[in-house]
Amino acid sequence: MMENKIRTALSLGVLAGFAATGTAEAQSHEGLLRKLVSKGVLTEAEAATLREENAADAKDALPNWVETLSLKGDLRLRFDHTHDSTSDGDAANDRMRYRFRYGGTANMKNGFKAGFRIGTGSESDPISTNNTFGGGHARDDLMIDQAWVSWTGESGLALYGGKNPNFEKTGWMVSKALFDGDITPEGFEAHYELDGGLGLHAGLYFLDGEHKAGNGMEALTMAQVTYGTSLSDTTSLDLGLGLYSLDDDALTGTTKGSGNTGGQGMTPLFLDVALGYSGASQPIKLYGTLVENQEADTAEAGYIAGIKYGKAKAPGTWEAKIEYRSLEANAAWDEMTDSDFGSIGAKAANEYKNGTNTKGTIVQAKYQIYSNVQFAATWFHTKSENGSFDDENNNRLQLDLIFKF
Questions:
Q1: CA atoms within 13 Å, Cβ hemisphere of 220
Q2: Distance CA 325, CA 66 (A)
Q3: d(Cα 269, Cα 291) in Å, to the nearest integer?
Q4: Cα separation values, 280 from 212, 239, 276, 284, 320, Å
């Protein structure tokens, strides 16, 4: 009888130790179990029962969200040489900058997913998540960059709501020249993928989501039809035809971009095309965008054309692209365009600003050093579309080291 009590007490102690400790300590308890079996205190069957009970208890103790949550982040270190203009005596603007983002997605296993991301940047700047080194090593702010929920049905319908991922992550085919890649739009989206490669997309985004006396909500609405198909075993074609419209109230008092003419409405129609070829030693992609503002009376058009060669993904791989852009002053809303693509003199003689009324060339090269470390170099050469400001030596150079984890 006493021997059975001792055996039971030891068994309970070992089981409690298994449940309360991590992997390393659990391994030491496994050694104790084997010792008790060798001494005859426990039978092999009793030891096996203890192991099974401990595994079940450990699984029950782990919250379900831990099993469905995936986390990822990135850190980018950047040298940014902004321009070489000699107008007004300002020859260059060099900055050391960084970007940090970290977030996760929880799969609720019922069609729903929820996601979040925090990141650097400014609460007043929707098109950049960069921080410039400075402030005497003072602490920098972290912002809510994403907070969203999505639902995907078996029929091909997907819905998003909240502060959503960037357009390219949710199903849109939209050029970053028109909508900067750092934008995380606030509102609601619906995407429906039909058989045969056809997709229907709609979005309602709130620039001011509060209705107060005398002031209505300011919103941007967007719709697009996309089509993707394989022309052969090595060739693919993607097409997109879209339109967005902006409330007139949202066009007043904006400050981030430059180029738009006051009093012009904003309803751009945009056509995107991408042709991919994988039969060469490196993948090749030709792409382009046409845009025309249906409400503008003047300077209403723009286009983007580029070619990309290679793909920097596996260690030791690389890619390169060259792209030309021309955006007339009223072709698109200047507040949402690519924050890196601009020119000098838009708001002041020596100031480099993004927006419209700009044309120029982008050359970029990327090299994958490790699976999670990449180097990128990007050069911009730009000038005003209508020649209204300084056209001499509008250069921008960015050197990036990007770490993903």
A1: 18
A2: 45
A3: 6
A4: 58, 22, 11, 8, 15
**Residue 101 · residue 128 · CB < 8 Å:** no
Distance CA 65, CA 109 (A): 10
pLDDT digits (tens, 9 = 90+) for 361-393: 999 999 999 999 999 999 999 988 887 765 556
- Alpha-carbon distance of 344 to 312, in angstroms, equals 32
Cα angle at 303 between 379 and 399, to 5 degrees? Answer: 15
Gap between the terminal Cα atoms of the chain = 57
d(CA 300, CA 266) in angstroms, rounded, equals 10
- Of 213, 191, 218, 186, which Cα lies nearest the Cα of 202? 191
- Asked if 229 and 201 count as a contact pair (C-beta separation under 8 A), the reply is no
Q: How many CB atoms lie within 10 A of CB 70?
A: 10
Distance, CA of 60 to chain centre: 35
Secondary structure class of 3 (helix, strand, coil) = helix
Whose tokens are 């959503």? That residue is 164
> Residue 348, SS3?
coil
Interatomic CA distance for residues 200 and 174, integer angstroms: 13
Q: Which helix (H) or strand (E) element contains residue 38?
A: helix 23-38
Each residue's pLDDT tens digit, 212-249? 666 777 999 999 999 999 999 999 999 999 999 998 87
Whether the model pTM is above 0.85: no
Token pair in block for residue 174: 């939209």
Q: Which residues fall within 8 angstroms of residue 292, CB to CB, at 6 or more apart?
A: 268, 269, 270, 300, 301, 302, 331
CA–CA separation, 33 vs 43, rounded Å? Answer: 10
Structure tokens at 142: 């972290």
Residue 382 near residue 338 (C-beta atoms within 8 A):
no
3-state secondary structure of 270: strand
Count Cβ neighbours within 10 Å for each residue of 262-277 and write b for 16 or more, e otherwise: eebebebebebbbbbe
